[in-house]
Every structure is written in C-alpha cells, then in structure tokens.
Amino acid sequence: MGDVLAGIHAVWEFESDSVLIRYERGIRTPKLFQVLGERRVPLEAIAGVTLTPGRRGTVVLRIAPRQGADPLIEAAAGQLRESSDPYRLVLPAERGTLAEYYADELRALLDAPGPADRHLVAAPDVPLHFKAYDAKASFDGTAVSFRWFWTGASSAKWKAGDQTFPVAALSGVEWRSPEVFEGHLRLRRREEAVEPAPAQADQDPASVVFGLGYGAVHESLPFAAAVLAAVRRASPENAVPVAAARRDPADIAERIRHLGELHQAGLVTDEEFSSKKAELLAQL
C-alpha cells in the first residue's frame, strides 16, 4: 500500500509485504516502545486486524499477530498491559474513517490466520543485559549469564555460584512480569526432565527475581524474547515459553491478607490494591 498512518506514540507504514511500526521516543511514550524503536511485521505474521472505540475520543487499530510469530508476544504470555501492547495504534476519533480504510485494505491481504511454525517478527538485538533484584543478567546471543548481587541473592544461589547457560542447554523461557508479585525470569533447562528445578525462583540458580525498580518490563521482556528466539533457532522442536505454575490457594490467601494490611496502612492505593488482588486471584 505504501501509505503512512500516524497515531499516538507510533507511526505505521503499510508496505506491500509488511507493516513497519516506528515508535516515538517522547517522555510520554511507554518505555517498552522506546526500547523497541521500530518493528517490521510481515503480513504472514498477522492473523487479523480490528478497529474499536478507544478512550477519550480515540479509536484503536490493532494487529493480532499469529500465535508463535513474535518472540516478544510469546515471552509476554498475555501479561502486557494494554497501554504497552506494541500492536495497538491509538488515533483521534476523527481519523476513524481513515483507520477503517487501512484496516480493510490490510485484511484483504491476509491469508494465514493459524499458528506460525517459526518466528516471523525479529527478536530484539543482542547483546542485552538488565539488573534484577538478585543479579545482573546478560545475553550475548550464545549464552545467558547471571552474576549474583550479595545484597539480593539467596544463600542457595551464592552456594551455586555465578551461572552461565549456553543456548543449546536450554529448552525454554518463563517470564513473569515485574508488575505482579514474584516477577522473575526463569531459564528452562533440558536437564530438568531428569532433575526438576526448585519451585521458588529465588532458590533456583537458573532464575533471577525482580523487585521494585529491578527487572522492569522494557528491560527484562526484550531480554526474554531474545533468549527465546535463540533457543527456538537452536532447537525448534523444544523452544517454548513456559507459563508460571499456579500457586497454592493458601499461599494466595496469605498474600492477599498481607496486601490488605498494606492497603489499610496507606502504603497501597485503592487502585493498586484492586489490581494486585485481581492478579493474585487469577493465579488460582
């Protein structure tokens, strides 16, 4: 199509075989978008297109990527907030007719709605690194390294020592958003089929845990996506993101009780309390 549609935080350029998404770098732009910079989404990576009313006089044009087509979306496993969805373009309502035109044009070019057998959208470039609560995590494209911080790492991790995991030794990645309780990045190793990993991420030397200001989405999610893409390339049949295991109901109840105490003490707002409580209940 060769046309451009400018929205809030991003510009979409419609080409004959792809959609090029360029993200703004303003202070109001979500940090994840700023890190991504731009992404080229091949038409074969798109399952569908929607146009819906947005908030405060806006409309939202959204691409639905095919399952398995984008390592970033695979790693996120449905945990991204709507405002950080890299496939949403928010536009003023008066541009709704134009957006509908582009949506129709794009739909006419799509013919592959099912799951993709490989990643079709490029993963974030390496090398990548970020600070978790208990370690510095680094990925150079061939191996993931964890260097423990004495102020945050558990005794189990100190005992195991700093860790390096070649991509060939991995079978998948588990990313749990730092915006919920017990956020972490866990590497799934092939050897787990013989020797299961510890249940808690803070006890597992193949995991780093997040905390306030540590492992932010815009740092840890691109990292997880790049690792997942590398594992998939090394062994396509085994590379899958792993959903975090459901928690013990008693543990969830205790965490909700503790959250309530923080709320009563004024340390958590009404909105934060409701949001976090809903996230905990969703783990049941």
From TrEMBL:
What does the record list as coiled-coil region(s)? none
* Matches recorded under Pfam families: DUF4429, SHOCT
Q: Which residues form the DUF4429 domain?
A: 12-106, 137-227
In this chain the SHOCT domain maps to: 254-281
Signal peptide residue numbers: none
| Descriptive protein name | DUF4429 domain-containing protein
Q: Which organism is it from?
A: Streptomyces ziwulingensis
